[in-house]
Structures are given as structure tokens and as C-alpha cells.
Amino acid sequence: MHEMAIAEGILEIALDYAQKNDAARIERIGLLLGELSGVETDALSLCFSSLVQGTPAEHAALTWERVPLMGRCHDCGRELRIRPQDYLCPDCGGGMEIIGGREMRVDFIEME
């Protein structure tokens, strides 16, 4: 289950940030998760809750925003929301480049 490794990374980032900012408690951690990130949020939440016991993040809420899959046409430059199987621009037929939707990162950390 790669969600455990992801949860460990999130907690490490949050604890490091809290330590550098002399925070006693982490309130909320916000993530950006792209459509193609492959993260199962239920599994991630379960893994995270098992890791935070006894840490400054013990009562932290883990939240996320899903980032849609976005593409840009190599020929006409149009940017639009796409599906994983969309390789061609619907306007000109040019090849599409993925420009968003693979994100998997900590967006913010709220702490006291």
C-alpha cells in the first residue's frame, strides 16, 4: 500500500515545518492531489491517523483538493480539461501535453 509511504512523507514534512516554526500543534494539513496521482484518499486517511498518535499532529485534519487532468495542445496552445485517453486536441487535432493533474503535494499546514 503506497498510501502508508505517502502518509509518512506528509507527516515528516508537517513535523519538520512545525519544528522550524516553533509550533506546538498542527491543526490541519491540506494536500493537492491530481486525478492521475493514484492516491486512494480513504486509505491515506487511515494510514495518516495511525501515524500521528503521540505527535504534534495527533488531532490534525487531513484535507485535500482534487486537481483535474489538464492538457495543452502542442499546435494551437489551447488548454482544457482532458481525460487520460485524450491525446488529440478537439479543436485542431494536434497532440496534447499533460500540464496538470499529476500533483501530489502538501499545499498548506495550519499550526499553533
TrEMBL record:
Phylogenetic placement of the source organism: Bacteria, Bacillati, Bacillota, Negativicutes, Selenomonadales
Residues noted as binding Zn(2+) in the record, renumbered to the chain: C73, C76, C89, C92
Cross-referenced Pfam families: HypA
Name this protein carries in UniProt: Hydrogenase maturation factor HypA
Superkingdom in the source lineage: Bacteria
Keyword Zinc: yes
Alphabetical list of InterPro entries matching this protein: HypA/HybF
Family stated for the protein in its record: Belongs to the HypA/HybF family.
Binding residues for Ni(2+): H2
Role summary: Involved in the maturation of [NiFe] hydrogenases. Required for nickel insertion into the metal center of the hydrogenase.
PANTHER family documented for this protein: HYDROGENASE MATURATION FACTOR HYPA
Keywords in alphabetical order: Metal-binding, Nickel, Zinc
